[in-house]
């Protein structure tokens, strides 16, 4: 049976390390909350930087479609009142629109008629939908804004990804998600309320092996929970200070296809802040209390000695022990007085 | 994979074009887009990072970007970019190698992406005109299948046009027997039949290009037209006015292959078909757009409600594309006992399968058969290789086989993340056996060399044969008969040695 070791058996299987070409789905969640972008504009002394972002984003989506013929894109907007699928459009809405106004040609002049059809289909829908969305935003000025639309957007993207992957099983579609957001200057106040929904998204994303990339424009450099998201899902976190040259960032750092992730060095840097937030106050905690039943993290001892998440009652004696202040040995009278005032 | 093979052959053709021709090609945005898609993945990534960056960048920086396990692909990517002259090298003042994107390509590609000046390279749509999808599908598949049927030799009335016959002859897929003037399929022809549809079309088109050069047609015009066809949208009408004379002539030939449809020969419009779209896509699955997928769900929901279903009947052309999609035609299952089930009803698929499978029975939607030693041997003697059969079986495997294989691999990876196993879609017994059957045919191996015989005593024999063995040129020896055989390359060494040793005594 020496013959089995013969040349015919040598080229069996694929070459090691060869990347198999497979189409991929890119879902982009863009945060277009007007309030955030206005703050950003004011700070940088510019106007309409969101338009720059959206322009770059459209070209980026085209680039993704160019990468492989079977590549697909989806775009979800997280705005002040909730989320909206911009592309692909829901068929039901479509009928409504077409009956209302034939076609809003005046806004579409920026898209060339002779563009590659697949680009044009996507781009036209996007421009049209964005226009509608901004109109809606205009009307809802002064309404109460929803807190965690971004996390909602990520969940919607994951649900969409999961469905498309199932439907396109025959061509083994890979997928990734990109989050484009604008950082606000007021610390991470808004972000803290999103901890639990974002955490849930991370778990489902790792399960379906879908990396989540994040681009944060302006604001503070760090973004605790979004950084944790990218770290856990094998994604990329990128912070840019202005919208200048955003397209170059997108087409380089954000263009790593899932199939290339094994061989390309990711442009991530530094450490990730792994801290979590308090269930009650929403503050980021470094040292805190933890419920022994449901592992919910708290920065204060909850009122009523009941866990706010799972309603289990805590032992009074244990709570009493926790509440006990550290005893400072009295060395001299003067020093002990100092300690009290510090507290 | 045959898709790789296809890429390779198209890329090779492009690489062999002289540089001025390549540069002229890059003037068309549609062509740039198609060429970009043909590149290796890593090359595409590098290109994209350079398109919006006017500066030259250090080659070393690109290299640093790739982890050590991807160096092979890195070399491959750079090589293909260089041979297509897509990047221009330059030395900076420190002597380090810098590269930049070809400026013509950069401009055209940028225009393709942003929808700038595209110069009608993506075709001119005539909105008022349209055509039903089923007419197009029927037309393209009847044209194309006529060609394939003719090659397989199915007895039937229609014979492809003279142009097509000429092309088949020139590409040596078929040959004309002199005595009867009948066409006979060649070994290459058999191999051709096992390829995927887009690879087949490209094989013919590449041949077309070679022939066209002898007719003084401009390859740039032809390639631009081919790549444009791949970027069009099925079901739309396109104007012929913008085409050059060469391209107008080509339309007739493309009609013969079923790539485009025209209502009559002098029509001012043409309609691309599904086959044309396949030219620039890897997957034989003609892409369904995401919105289509979304629609299909909506559609299903609607159909669930019986009252509404009547209303939705008329509104969707996409239906045609969706129905055929879930399982590709000809999906087949191979069992470990060499039984094969193919879910196909098309005579063509069955004819191709019968090239290497012993078919047993045919049902309404499937055929069953057995892979036997005889059936494989007939295929092998026809010039089909074991690798081709295996590749065909793999690409046509039923989605369920693929899923099963993926699950198995995942389980293995969980147990041992370093496992070297690759995805095994087909049962390994069948794959090995097909290879073994091929090996059976190569029993005799020829070597050039010299036979040493008639030794006077065994010490002389032992001395020389041992030396030959030590330097690794001994191919065969027989101690009893005192004979041994040495390969051609080693013969002079053994002779020298014999002269030195034996003359001394």
From TrEMBL, chain A:
<keyword id="KW-0863">Zinc-finger</keyword>
<dbReference type="GO" id="GO:0008270">
    <property type="term" value="F:zinc ion binding"/>
</dbReference>
<dbReference type="GO" id="GO:0006355">
    <property type="term" value="P:regulation of DNA-templated transcription"/>
</dbReference>
<dbReference type="InterPro" id="IPR004600">
    <property type="entry name" value="TFIIH_Tfb4/GTF2H3"/>
</dbReference>
<keyword id="KW-0804">Transcription</keyword>
<keyword id="KW-0479">Metal-binding</keyword>
<dbReference type="GO" id="GO:0006289">
    <property type="term" value="P:nucleotide-excision repair"/>
</dbReference>
<keyword id="KW-0862">Zinc</keyword>
<comment type="subunit">
    <text>Component of the 7-subunit TFIIH core complex composed of XPB/SSL2, XPD/RAD3, SSL1, TFB1, TFB2, TFB4 and TFB5, which is active in NER. The core complex associates with the 3-subunit CTD-kinase module TFIIK composed of CCL1, KIN28 and TFB3 to form the 10-subunit holoenzyme (holo-TFIIH) active in transcription.</text>
</comment>
<dbReference type="GO" id="GO:0005675">
    <property type="term" value="C:transcription factor TFIIH holo complex"/>
</dbReference>
<feature type="region of interest" description="Disordered">
    <location>
        <begin position="1"/>
        <end position="20"/>
    </location>
</feature>
<keyword id="KW-0234">DNA repair</keyword>
<dbReference type="InterPro" id="IPR036465">
    <property type="entry name" value="vWFA_dom_sf"/>
</dbReference>
<keyword id="KW-0805">Transcription regulation</keyword>
<protein>
    <recommendedName>
        <fullName>General transcription and DNA repair factor IIH subunit TFB4</fullName>
    </recommendedName>
</protein>
<comment type="similarity">
    <text>Belongs to the TFB4 family.</text>
</comment>
<keyword id="KW-0227">DNA damage</keyword>
<dbReference type="Pfam" id="PF03850">
    <property type="entry name" value="Tfb4"/>
</dbReference>
<keyword id="KW-0539">Nucleus</keyword>
<comment type="function">
    <text>Component of the general transcription and DNA repair factor IIH (TFIIH) core complex, which is involved in general and transcription-coupled nucleotide excision repair (NER) of damaged DNA and, when complexed to TFIIK, in RNA transcription by RNA polymerase II. In NER, TFIIH acts by opening DNA around the lesion to allow the excision of the damaged oligonucleotide and its replacement by a new DNA fragment. In transcription, TFIIH has an essential role in transcription initiation.</text>
</comment>
<dbReference type="GO" id="GO:0000439">
    <property type="term" value="C:transcription factor TFIIH core complex"/>
</dbReference>
Automatic annotation (TrEMBL), chain B:
<dbReference type="GO" id="GO:0006289">
    <property type="term" value="P:nucleotide-excision repair"/>
</dbReference>
<dbReference type="GO" id="GO:0000439">
    <property type="term" value="C:transcription factor TFIIH core complex"/>
</dbReference>
<dbReference type="GO" id="GO:0001671">
    <property type="term" value="F:ATPase activator activity"/>
</dbReference>
<comment type="function">
    <text>Component of the general transcription and DNA repair factor IIH (TFIIH) core complex which is involved in general and transcription-coupled nucleotide excision repair (NER) of damaged DNA.</text>
</comment>
<comment type="similarity">
    <text>Belongs to the TFB2 family.</text>
</comment>
<dbReference type="GO" id="GO:0006366">
    <property type="term" value="P:transcription by RNA polymerase II"/>
</dbReference>
<feature type="domain" description="Transcription factor Tfb2 C-terminal">
    <location>
        <begin position="432"/>
        <end position="499"/>
    </location>
</feature>
<protein>
    <recommendedName>
        <fullName>RNA polymerase II transcription factor B subunit 2</fullName>
    </recommendedName>
</protein>
<keyword id="KW-0539">Nucleus</keyword>
<dbReference type="GO" id="GO:0005675">
    <property type="term" value="C:transcription factor TFIIH holo complex"/>
</dbReference>
<dbReference type="GO" id="GO:0003690">
    <property type="term" value="F:double-stranded DNA binding"/>
</dbReference>
<keyword id="KW-0805">Transcription regulation</keyword>
<keyword id="KW-0234">DNA repair</keyword>
<dbReference type="Pfam" id="PF03849">
    <property type="entry name" value="Tfb2"/>
</dbReference>
<keyword id="KW-0804">Transcription</keyword>
<dbReference type="Pfam" id="PF18307">
    <property type="entry name" value="Tfb2_C"/>
</dbReference>
<dbReference type="InterPro" id="IPR004598">
    <property type="entry name" value="TFIIH_p52/Tfb2"/>
</dbReference>
<comment type="function">
    <text>Component of the general transcription and DNA repair factor IIH (TFIIH) core complex, which is involved in general and transcription-coupled nucleotide excision repair (NER) of damaged DNA and, when complexed to TFIIK, in RNA transcription by RNA polymerase II. In NER, TFIIH acts by opening DNA around the lesion to allow the excision of the damaged oligonucleotide and its replacement by a new DNA fragment. In transcription, TFIIH has an essential role in transcription initiation.</text>
</comment>
<dbReference type="InterPro" id="IPR040662">
    <property type="entry name" value="Tfb2_C"/>
</dbReference>
<keyword id="KW-0227">DNA damage</keyword>
């Amino acid at each position: 049976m020496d013959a089995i070791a013969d040349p015919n058996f040598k080229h069996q299987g694929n070459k090691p390390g060869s990347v198999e070409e497979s189409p991929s789905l890119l879902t982009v969640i863009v945060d277009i909350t007007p309030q955030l972008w206005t703050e950003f504009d004011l700070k940088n002394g510019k106007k309409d930087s969101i338009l720059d972002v959206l322009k770059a984003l459209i070209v980026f989506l085209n680039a993704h479609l160019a990468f492989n013929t079977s590549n697909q894109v989806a775009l979800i907007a997280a705005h002040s009142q909730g989320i909206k699928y911009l592309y692909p459009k829901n068929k039901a809405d479509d009928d409504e629109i077409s009956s209302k106004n034939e076609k809003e040609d005046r806004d579409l002049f920026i898209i060339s008629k002779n563009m590659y059809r697949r680009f044009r289909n996507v781009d036209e829908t996007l421009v049209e939908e964005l226009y509608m969305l901004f109109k809606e935003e205009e009307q809802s000025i002064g309404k109460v804004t929803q807190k965690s639309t971004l996390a909602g957007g990520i969940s919607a993207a994951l649900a969409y990804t999961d469905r498309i992957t199932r439907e396109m099983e025959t061509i083994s579609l890979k997928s990734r998600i990109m989050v484009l957001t604008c950082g606000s200057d007021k610390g991470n106040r808004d972000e803290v309320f999103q901890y639990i929904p974002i955490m849930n998204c991370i778990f489902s994303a790792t399960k379906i092996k879908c990396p989540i990339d994040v681009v944060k424009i302006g604001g503070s450099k760090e973004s605790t929970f979004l950084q944790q998201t990218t770290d856990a899902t094998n994604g990329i976190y990128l912070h840019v200070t202005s919208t200048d040259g955003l397209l170059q960032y997108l087409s380089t750092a954000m263009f790593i296809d899932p199939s290339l992730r094994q061989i390309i060095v990711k442009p991530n840097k530094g450490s990730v802040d792994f801290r979590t937030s308090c269930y009650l106050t929403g503050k980021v905690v470094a040292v805190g209390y933890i419920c022994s039943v449901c592992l919910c993290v708290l920065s204060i001892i909850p009122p009523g000695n009941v866990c706010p998440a799972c309603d289990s009652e805590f032992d009074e004696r244990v709570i009493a022990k926790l509440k006990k202040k550290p005893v400072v040995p009295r060395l001299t009278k003067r020093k002990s007085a100092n300690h009290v005032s510090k507290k | 994979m045959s898709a790789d093979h296809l890429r390779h052959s198209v890329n090779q053709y492009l690489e062999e074009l002289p540089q001025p021709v390549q540069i002229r090609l890059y003037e068309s945005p549609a062509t740039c887009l198609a060429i970009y898609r043909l590149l290796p993945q890593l090359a595409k990534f590098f290109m994209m990072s350079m398109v919006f960056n006017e500066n030259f960048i250090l080659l070393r920086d690109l290299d640093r970007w790739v982890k050590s396990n991807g160096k092979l692909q890195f070399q491959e990517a750079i090589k293909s970019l260089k041979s297509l002259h897509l990047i221009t090298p330059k030395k900076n003042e420190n002597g380090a190698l810098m590269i930049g994107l070809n400026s013509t390509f950069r401009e055209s590609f940028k225009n393709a992406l942003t929808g700038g000046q595209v110069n009608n390279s993506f075709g001119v749509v005539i909105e008022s005109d349209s055509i039903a999808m089923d007419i197009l599908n029927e037309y393209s598949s009847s044209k194309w299948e006529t060609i394939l049927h003719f090659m397989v030799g199915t007895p039937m009335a229609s014979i492809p046009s003279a142009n097509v016959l000429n092309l088949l002859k020139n590409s040596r897929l078929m040959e004309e027997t002199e005595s009867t003037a009948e066409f006979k399929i060649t070994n290459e022809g058999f191999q051709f039949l096992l390829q995927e549809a887009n690879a087949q079309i490209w094989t013919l088109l590449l041949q077309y290009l070679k022939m066209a050069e002898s007719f003084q047609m401009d390859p740039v015009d032809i390639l631009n037209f081919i790549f444009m066809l791949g970027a069009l949208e099925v079901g739309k009408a396109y104007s012929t006015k913008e085409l050059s004379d060469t391209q107008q002539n080509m339309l007739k030939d493309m009609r013969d292959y079923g790539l485009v449809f025209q209502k009559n020969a002098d029509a001012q419009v043409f309609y691309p078909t599904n086959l044309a779209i396949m030219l620039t896509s890897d997957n034989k699955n003609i892409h369904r757009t995401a919105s289509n997928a979304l629609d299909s769900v909506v559609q299903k929901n609607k159909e669930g409600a019986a009252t509404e279903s009547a209303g939705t009947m008329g509104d969707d052309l996409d239906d045609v594309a969706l129905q055929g999609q879930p399982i590709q035609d000809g999906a087949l299952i191979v069992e470990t006992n060499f039984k094969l089930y193919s879910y196909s009803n098309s005579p063509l698929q069955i004819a191709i399968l019968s090239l290497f499978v012993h078919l047993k029975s045919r049902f309404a939607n499937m055929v069953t058969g057995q892979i036997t030693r005889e059936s494989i041997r007939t295929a092998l003697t026809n010039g089909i290789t074991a690798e081709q059969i295996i590749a065909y079986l793999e690409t046509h495997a039923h989605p369920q086989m693929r899923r099963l294989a993926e699950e198995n691999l995942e389980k293995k990876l969980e147990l041992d993340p370093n496992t070297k196993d690759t995805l095994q879609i087909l049962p390994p017994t069948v794959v090995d056996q097909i290879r073994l059957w091929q090996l059976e045919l190569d029993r005799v191996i020829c070597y050039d060399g010299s036979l040493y015989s008639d030794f006077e005593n065994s010490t002389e024999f032992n001395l020389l044969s041992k030396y030959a063995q030590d330097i690794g040129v001994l191919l065969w020896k027989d101690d009893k008969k005192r004979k041994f055989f040495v390969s051609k390359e080693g013969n002079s060494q053994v002779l020298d040695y014999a002269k030195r040793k034996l003359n001394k005594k």
